[in-house]
Amino acid sequence: MNVGRFYPAPAKLNLFLHVVGRRANGYHELQTVFRFLDYGDELEITPRADGQIVLVEPLPGVAQEHDLCWRAARLLQAHTGCGLGADIRLIKRLPMGGGLGGGSSDAATVLMALNQLWELGLSRATLQELGLQLGADVPVFIYGQTAFAEGVGEVFQPLPLAPATYVVLIPPVSVSTQGVFSHPELTRDTPRLTITPLTEGAWQDDRTHNDLEPLVARLYPEVAAALDWLGQYGAARMTGSGACCFAAFASREDAERVFAIRPSGMHGFVADGLDQHPLFGIV
Fold first, then answer.
1. pTM over 0.70
2. Which position among 41, 106, 137, 211 bears the catalytic label?
3. Is 92 a catalytic residue?
4. 44 and 73, same domain (yes or no)
5. Is position 280 within any domain?
6. How many structural domains is the chain composed of?
7. Which residues contact 184 (CB under 8 A, 6 or more apart)?
8. Contact 54/180 with Cβ under 8 angstroms?
9. DSSP reduced 3-state for 274
10. What tens-digit pLDDT sequence spans the chain (283 residues)?
11. Which of 105, 126, 158 is the last residue of a domain?
């Protein structure tokens, strides 16, 4: 009998997010910095010989054909012609519609894990190209390093960052990424940055921001409330298209102290930043 193996699917933060243009096909040109966290989902994956992809515990309300784990496995089968299958059990910790990349991270982990388990030998670049077919945030998890990203979020340059611990708050709302990016009031003309000032720390001062944050905070008062409270203790920002918000702290002790005094009913977690994806070495 095959035995399942467990694979991490970490959260990501967008330390800033600029919308610098819009392509003719409707996709937005972005600039951002991605950083992984030592907190996230987990997948138990067990190979099958019969070619079936089975979601052991399907997400409530998500049809199989829309599930990113299932789609990632099927895409890998179609690309390689592999006749093997897998049982996939997702241990879900990251919220949907939170801006932490949960679904994208899950899909990337499935691609990397099955590439190993099925002994396919695909390169990191090939897996990134496949990941982009599933969503704009999938490739960065396969790239696997803290990165300055451009394009639709799939062109990367490694970016060394100082250690940090983050307080992440999870407002009780799910934000539609498509709804935010299609909103007529979204700012889409932020001037482009170069990586040189980023290495000097520009990503954490007033030269950078999240272009989506003012709009989301206005549409979702719960996000505004989280930003206001966390902003008393550090430079609070929203990640991705929301709803989650974060602030960086120099030590875990400082982050834990702030998290401990959060208002009753305000949920979240404390996590350290990672320089590399935990699965970086398997590709």
1. yes
2. 137
3. no
4. yes
5. no
6. 2
7. none
8. no
9. strand
10. 477 899 999 999 999 999 998 887 777 899 999 999 999 999 999 999 999 999 999 999 999 999 999 999 999 999 999 999 999 999 999 999 899 999 999 999 999 999 999 999 999 999 999 999 999 999 999 999 999 999 887 899 999 899 999 999 999 999 998 899 999 989 888 999 876 656 655 556 678 999 999 999 999 999 999 999 999 999 999 999 999 999 999 999 999 999 999 999 999 999 999 999 999 999 9
11. 158
> Up-side HSE of residue 235: CA atoms within 13 Å toward CB?
13
**End-of-domain residue from the set 106, 125, 158:** 158
Pair 15, 151 in one domain: yes
Half-sphere exposure of 44 (CA within 13 A, CB side): 8
Secondary structure letter of residue 58 according to DSSP: P
Query: Domain range spanning residue 244?
Result: 165-274
Q: How far is CA 119 from CA 5, 29, 115, 204, in A?
A: 15, 35, 6, 41
**Side chain identity at residue 121, one-letter code:** G
What burial class does residue 180 get, using C-beta atoms within 10 Å of its C-beta: 0-12 exposed, 13-18 middle, 19+ buried? Answer: buried
